[in-house]
Specification:
Blueprint: H1 2-25, E1 30-34, E2 40-43, H2 45-51, H3 55-58, H4 70-83, E3 85-94, E4 100-112, E5 115-124, H5 126-204, H6 212-245, E6 254-256, H7 258-273, E7 277-282, E8 290-292, H8 294-311, E9 316-326, E10 336-344, H9 351-354, H10 374-385, E11 389-395, E12 399-407, H11 418-427
Parallel strand pairs: 7-9
Antiparallel strand pairs: 1-2, 1-5, 3-4, 4-5, 6-8, 9-10, 10-12, 11-12
Length: about 425
């Protein structure tokens, strides 16, 4: 019996030595800690090298010292208590020199001589994590570059549309001005003829001047003159507003009256708002002319007013306010800014959509309605071309307010998308 016992002890020692040799030779960092307190009872050289310590320095330390975030350790212990095993948990440990290191933990609970222990292995995934982070950053940059390129293309297309609109309006204005000139000439002739007719009747037939039929005919002629004059003036004003809105000098920084630009835009959007939406204008009396790109800002006003009208289901109100505001913009461009605030009593925008409202391609409208580039272009024009800012506040069921802040002393050149610059070079 004694010989059997000695043989068993020998086999146990040999097995233990082999197991120890296998663990030491393992390329995987291995560790055994007390379940209570986390004291490190055993570790192989791979683990010591991983954390930057010698084995003698590592044995006896407590595992909480090596967790970058103690919340990770608590989650790991919770998994072990509930399941007895934690597999593939990714977290960061801290090496002896303070540098963080991404690892993947696989651990199980066990017992040695009746004492609870945790046996685990660590996989160094630091390179993989950094590669994933670099890939994510590269993807983000690529997505941003793609979005900027799409916005630039959209701005170029919009600019070309505005140029085409300007040419068309100029042609229409020329065609309309010719008959309007004839109408103005004719109404002046009509007024003069009516005046002479009344004078001649007074001289030749004084006894008939007070005749009811003659008085009625003369009054009708005078009324016709006033109607023709009013209509001709209205047509001329509309043509002037359209020509002003679609001006072709977008690339030129110049002094402009924002109130005139807003009025021009309202003429263009009148068909969308008449009989349905009340337009309230509160223009600041102290708002000066500012350095800007008028044609580009007209695009912003047009988009904002059209969006506001489309947000109103049925009847409602669009309020347009302007004010001169002291202070410096975050772009650092001016000590004074002009604020243009466009508010509607529409349906409002949900908070989760509000934070993406200026992203290229994002739209709150239904499928097939618009491209989602309108507000992105507005942001580009205000922020990039005018060094300004644009803010939005919205409440569901109450309405939305866009505030455009433009510096009064813009001196920077316009933002020119790469595609537009290339197109200009080709045209030259």
């Amino acid at each position: 019996m004694a010989s059997d016992t000695r043989a068993d002890d020998l086999r146990d020692r040999i097995a233990a030595q082999h197991l120890h040799a296998i663990i030491e030779a393992s390329p995987i960092p291995l560790v055994i800690t007390r379940a209570n307190g986390g004291e490190i009872l055993f570790a192989n050289q791979e683990l010591a090298s991983l954390v930057g310590l010698s084995l003698d320095q590592l044995i006896g330390r407590v595992s909480p010292d090596f967790y970058r975030d103690q919340a990770d350790r608590q989650r790991l212990l919770t998994m072990l208590r509930e399941d007895g095993v934690a597999q593939g948990m990714e977290l960061q440990i801290v090496r002896s020199d303070g540098t963080p290191l991404w690892v993947s933990f696989t651990m199980v609970t066990s017992a040695i001589d009746g004492e609870g222990v945790i046996i685990g292995g660590l996989y160094n995934i630091d390179d993989r994590k950094h590669a994933e982070q670099a890939l994510q950053e590269a993807m983000s940059k690529l997505e941003k570059a793609h979005a900027e390129r799409e916005a630039s293309r959209a701005q170029l297309v919009q600019s070309e549309k505005m140029a085409a609109l300007g040419s068309m309006v100029a042609g229409i204005a020329h065609e309309i001005n010719t008959p309007i000139g004839a109408i103005n000439s004719t109404k002046d002739t009509l007024a003069l003829a009516t005046k002479k007719l009344r004078a001649n009747l007074d001289k030749a037939f004084p006894e008939h001047v007070e005749d009811r039929r003659i008085k009625s005919a003369l009054a009708a002629l005078e009324d016709a003159y006033r109607v023709i004059e009013s209509a001709a003036t209205r047509v001329a004003q509309i043509v002037r507003r359209l020509r002003s809105f679609a001006r072709l000098d977008e690339a030129q920084l110049k002094k402009a009256n924002l109130h005139e630009g807003i009025e021009d835009t309202l003429v263009l959007t009148h068909h969308q708002t008449k009989n349905r939406i009340e337009i309230v204008k509160r223009f600041g009396a102290d708002v000066p002319e500012i350095n800007c790109f008028p044609g580009q800002l007209n695009q912003v006003f047009l988009n904002m007013i059209v969006n506001a009208s489309q947000a109103i289901d049925g009847k409602g109100t669009i309020t347009i306010e302007t004010a001169l505001v002291p202070g410096t913009s975050s772009a650092g461009s001016s000590s004074e800014r002009v604020h243009v605030r466009i508010s509607d009593t529409g349906s409002g925008i949900a908070p989760d959509k509000l934070e993406r409202i200026f992203d290229p391609g994002f739209t709150t409208k239904g499928v097939g309605v618009g491209t989602g580039l309108g507000l992105s272009i507005c942001y580009q024009i205000v922020h990039d071309a005018h060094k300004g800012e644009i803010f939005v506040h919205s409440e569901l069921g109450v309405g939305t307010t866009f505030t455009i802040a433009i510096p009064t002393d813009l001196k920077e050149p316009a933002f020119v998308p790469r595609e537009q610059a290339e197109q200009t070079e080709r045209n030259e």
